[in-house]
Design goal:
heterodimer; A: alpha/beta; five-stranded parallel sheet; 41% helix; globular; B: mainly beta; five-stranded mixed sheet; 1 helix; 11% helix
Chain lengths: 251, 66
């Protein structure tokens, strides 16, 4: 069935966007990326001497996976805009996963700084994929100013707490005119499937795979879950009933 | 003269270019970007851009993350 994910006019066969953070080493990451089937994967921008040479770019290029730079670690709009501009220069892409977090303890997006950065980056010609709160109003505003997606969190980054407010996610997907990507909080396959069943167009995850006991197997699980959830969403689930309803004919 | 390079104070000879700083920090060939005093210096201008005394240079590359 032909059902591509389309972001800013670009088609993807896979609806699973992955991160590269948290993997024990590059060979574990490589096996996980291949098993996930992803076609779009995030990287962070860091100082050369602090980071050393990780080889992650070479790995993604070899696997034919598009690079999606993020602005992880940025706390203000100004920092995020500069980081995005540096990423565009370094990686020759105008796509950016925009992250502007308020504090280290929660890593929750700062909505004021986020919206400001998104406006400036859209104006500067970026394809902006903002990591946002599960706030339906903020999601609409991000969409209205020209973001290519909205990417609400299920729960805070790295917690694996799943989707804490499914109704908010559904409110967001029901009014979205751009793809909604569930970003952050996925713990296991059922969380990813739920995101898709709630109407998300894709799932972005990293930790749930890279820090799983068997990252390669978990990546495969996430791939299946995203595909399953998407199919279920399109297929149209049965309404929930209070009382039983026999599926076999009466005697 | 002195400049801040990736958060560290460095003694540089007068007239040091951004390109020279990039090789000083051992940056890889590809996937690198430079900011001087908070603004991006496009790769094409690395040779001709001179780091001023007290300049703040950031040399960034992509790492695993997100």
């Amino acid at each position: 069935m032909d059902d591509p994910l389309i972001i800013a006019g670009r088609e993807f066969r896979s609806r699973l966007i992955t991160g590269t953070g948290g993997a024990a080493n590059l060979s574990v990451l490589e096996r996980a990326l291949v098993a996930s089937g992803t076609e779009l994967t995030t990287v962070a921008m860091r100082r050369v001497d602090a980071a050393g040479q990780t080889g992650v770019l070479e790995l993604l290029r070899r696997l034919g996976i598009e690079v999606l730079p993020n602005t992880a670690g940025c706390r203000t709009s100004a920092e995020a805009v500069l980081t995005a501009q540096l990423a565009r220069e370094a990686l020759e892409t105008n796509w950016v996963k925009l992250e502007v977090v308020y504090d280290e303890q929660t890593l929750l997006p700062d909505p004021v700084e986020l919206l400001d950065a998104a406006e400036r980056l859209v104006r500067d010609g970026f394809v902006v994929l903002p990591y946002t709160n599960d706030d339906p109003v903020l999601a609409l505003k991000l969409q209205d100013i020209g973001c290519a997606t909205v990417m609400p969190l299920g729960s805070p980054i790295g917690t694996g707490l799943g989707i804490r407010n499914p109704h908010n996610i559904e409110l967001i997907t029901s009014r979205a005119g751009v793809p909604v990507v569930l970003d952050a909080g996925i713990g296991t396959a059922s969380d990813a499937a739920l995101a898709m069943e709630l109407g998300c167009s894709a799932v972005l995850l990293a930790t749930a795979v890279t820090r799983a006991q068997d990252p390669e197997r978990m990546a495969a699980a996430m791939r299946c879950a995203v595909e399953g959830g998407r199919l279920a969403r399109i297929a149209g689930r049965i309404p929930q009933r209070f009382w039983a309803q026999a599926s076999s004919p009466g005697l | 003269m002195k400049a801040q390079v990736n958060g560290t104070s460095r003694d540089l000879v007068d007239g040091t270019s951004v390109a020279a700083v990039v090789s000083l920090v051992g940056a890889p060939e590809k996937g690198v970007a430079v900011a001087l005093d908070g603004a991006v210096v496009p790769r094409a201008l690395w040779d001709s851009t001179i780091v001023p005394d007290g300049g703040v240079v950031e040399v960034l590359t992509a790492v695993q993350g997100g």
